[in-house]
Amino acid sequence: MTADELQTIIAAGLPCEHLHVEGDGRHWYATLVSAEFEGKRLIQRHQKVYATLGEKIKTDEVHALSMKTYTPAEWQAASKA
């Protein structure tokens, strides 16, 4: 799997204003900005992302995914810092 393929899978299941994925084919790092994260705790945000991956996580096709999740307002504030 490539970073572009993983990004496409996530984007198909979660509307994102910003989505960037990179990694080595087994260990992935993602930055996601989505209004879907509004009012959600960190674990709930991660669960939403993992839900988009479905069987890819269960079958170990995506072995590890580290992520930073932001609401649009959090992303805007982080961009100004």
From TrEMBL:
<protein>
    <submittedName>
        <fullName>BolA family transcriptional regulator</fullName>
    </submittedName>
</protein>
<dbReference type="Pfam" id="PF01722">
    <property type="entry name" value="BolA"/>
</dbReference>
<comment type="similarity">
    <text>Belongs to the BolA/IbaG family.</text>
</comment>
<dbReference type="InterPro" id="IPR036065">
    <property type="entry name" value="BolA-like_sf"/>
</dbReference>
<dbReference type="InterPro" id="IPR050961">
    <property type="entry name" value="BolA/IbaG_stress_morph_reg"/>
</dbReference>
<dbReference type="InterPro" id="IPR002634">
    <property type="entry name" value="BolA"/>
</dbReference>
